[in-house]
Amino acid sequence: MAHTDTSRSEHAASMAPYVADRARAAGSFGCRGPVRYDAKGQLHPEILRDFETHGFYIFEDVIDSDEVAELRDAVEDTIERAPSPPDSDTDAQGRPALGLDNRIKPYVFIKPLSDPWGGTKLLSGRHPTKMLEPTPDEDVPDHVVHLVLQMCTSMPSALRLYGHPDLLSIAEAINGPDFVPYNDAIFVKKPGVGGAVSWHQDGATHWDNPQWHPGIHGFNFQVQLYPTTPANALWIVPGSHKQGRIDIAARVAANPDGERLPDAIPLVTGAGDVTIVNRQVLHGSFANTSPDPRVSITFGFYPRSSVIGVAGELNTALDKTKVKAKVYDEQHILRRSAVVQVALDARHQDRPHERRYQYAPFADAQDHYRYGPETIESVLKDYAVHDIAI
């Protein structure tokens, strides 16, 4: 059980020595710098080596300041359009709330400073322990937005980000030119109310696969819209992606400091930086009792071999029911991957002079996936229903 008798200020103060120590340790790993390519235009092998060794990399200054500002505005506007209270049909200003007609609602709400998944059976039970849940200040709302879902429908700027040429080139370098998308979710950790995400590994399907390898469950990007600090950042245990399925509960129980794992480090970034983390890395985040916001636009990709013909086993974070396992066939993969191709065209329309990434699965069908009213209806509407989760 997580303690709930610690105030926000007490939690921040008690975390300070640990945060400072592990932030210093993070500097020894390097694993950060601009996106670099070799003479053949391929992602630089030094970056790939660091990622394969440690399971993460921090790409600096990937998203320019104008795009970051545009994304911030879009996310804040989307949050303002959330139902208030969560079961309402209207937002805080009395306007119709966003996404009422979506098959999957675009918001996940939590109680301030809580850990909604820790110690539950949600998401295939992959969060076996619960993070400390400090008591929030008295003047905060009863519920806050924790996740924003299906961003490519509600935010054109986020759709364009999904087609970023450097990010997709990185995906190709790691997973091959026919890489397959996972899902997307914007993590919102506002100061003094942002929730925790208990220690977990993302993969659920392939732990016992005879062909298991450290990259079999893919990776996630997180595009950071604000500078992240050790107190509000994503934390990881470097190299843990190579260890197979970890007994997280036992590791936390054996640690004298509980959830404050001695080998974890925070991924400290600037606004516009992009982190990449192997989905098998042990990772999580603490309740945000700091004065600083973190908003992380998160989306991931798999090797095609990891999903074709595979039955997804991952529970959903979108509700409290278990998703029925489905076999991801060619048609399903094409349907979900089409979002990438539409995003590429949307970005090209907005930034015609920028290098345009060529997504191999749609090399001969680009004309059928132009961004506009037709593909908004046929590809982007309710695309999250077709997310691929393993």
Question: Could you characterize the architecture of this molecule?
Answer:
- With 390 residues, the protein is α+β, with helices and mostly antiparallel strands.
- The protein has one domain (8-303): q2cbj1_9rhob like domain (Jelly Rolls, Sandwich).
- It is built from 10 helices and 12 strands.
- It has helices at 8-26, 45-54, 65-80, 122-125, 151-154, 156-162, 165-175, 248-254, 330-350, 373-380; strands at 32-33, 56-59, 107-110, 144-149, 180-189, 197-200, 219-224, 235-236, 265-266, 274-278, 283-285, 294-302.
- The strands form 2 sheets. Strands 1-2-10-7-12-5-4-3 form an 8-stranded mixed beta sheet. A 4-stranded antiparallel beta sheet has the order 6-11-8-9.
- The relative contact order is 0.18.
Quickly give the CATH architecture: Sandwich
Content of β-strand: 5-15%
Main beta sheet: 8 strands, mixed
End-to-end C-alpha gap = 28 Å
**Domain module tally:** 1
Bulk shape:
globular
Q: What is the CATH C level class, in words? A: Mainly Beta
**Total number of strands:** 12
Mean pLDDT value:
94
The CATH homologous superfamily is termed q2cbj1_9rhob like domain
As residue ranges, the low-confidence spans are 317-323
Structural category is alpha+beta
Compressed to H and E, one letter per element, the order equals HEHEHEHEHHHEEEEHEEEEHH
Total of DSSP H or I helical runs spanning 4+ residues: 10
Per CATH, what is the topology?
Jelly Rolls
Whole-number radius of gyration?
A: 20 Å
- Spatial arrangement of strands, main beta sheet: 1-2-10-7-12-5-4-3
Helix content: 25-40%
